[in-house]
Amino acid sequence: MELEQVRDLNKQTEAIAVVNAPDLTPTEYQKLQNQRVKTTSERVAERKHQLQQRYPIPITPEIKIRDDDGWYPKLRLHYYLTYDPQIVRNRDLKEWNGHLERGHGKVALQDVKLLTAQVELLRGLGIPGLLDPNREVRPTDPDVQRLVSLCVTCSRDIKDILNVTVSAKMTPMQIVGSIST
């Protein structure tokens, strides 16, 4: 087997173990959280509980693997992008106030995870209009051309805010794909 196949098999095996792990009560989960050394069965049960808290649907191996690949932050960003902008502002204000409270007026900026800038950048680029499932997006679409022009012009800001690299060498659809995922 090649290295990639072994990696994928290990991911799948672990995902199945998480799905088949017993459900934990909140008390059992809290006890595991405080425990420094955990057995494999305790670790997978803890992970299953975390996934159950994060996703309001039955946990499958696919969900576990996607979550490991960073699916949740993308879903959260998409949620904030498609709903009232005030929701993300309120969320960021709550996050900021929580850091101020826990830090007794001092904040470690690297620990603050604000989403308003990301959401507003995506709105400014016109991403919500491109997410319409009934819309056929083509490289010649005026909205795509506008997005490409803005992305190439503001590539440094996009890198800083979204951590996505955009270059003039990319095709329009590569730029749309990298910005929208």
Task: Summarize the structure in short.
It is built from 11 helices and no strands. The protein has helices spanning 3-20, 26-34, 40-54, 61-68, 71-82, 85-102, 116-125, 127-130, 142-153, 155-162, 172-180.
Provide an overview of this structure:
- There is one protein chain.
- This protein starts with a helix and ends with a helix.
- The chain contains 11 helices and no strands.
- With about 180 residues, the protein is mainly alpha-helical.
- It has 2 domains: about 5-70, no CATH class; about 75-180, no CATH class.
- Report the β-strand fraction as a percent range: under 5%
Low-confidence stretches: none
Form type: globular
Mean pLDDT: 92
Number of domains: 2
The span between the termini is 31 Å
What is the CA-based Rg, rounded?
Answer: 20 Å
Query: How many strands appear in the DSSP assignment?
Result: 0
Main sheet summary: none
Overall helicity:
55-70%
Give helix and strand order, one letter per element, not per position. HHHHHHHHHHH
Structural class: mainly alpha
Number of helices: 11
List the helices and strands and how they pair.
Elements: H1 3-20, H2 26-34, H3 40-54, H4 61-68, H5 71-82, H6 85-102, H7 116-125, H8 127-130, H9 142-153, H10 155-162, H11 172-180
Helix pairs in contact: 1-3, 1-4, 5-7, 9-11
Key phrases:
mainly alpha; globular; 181 residues; 2 domains
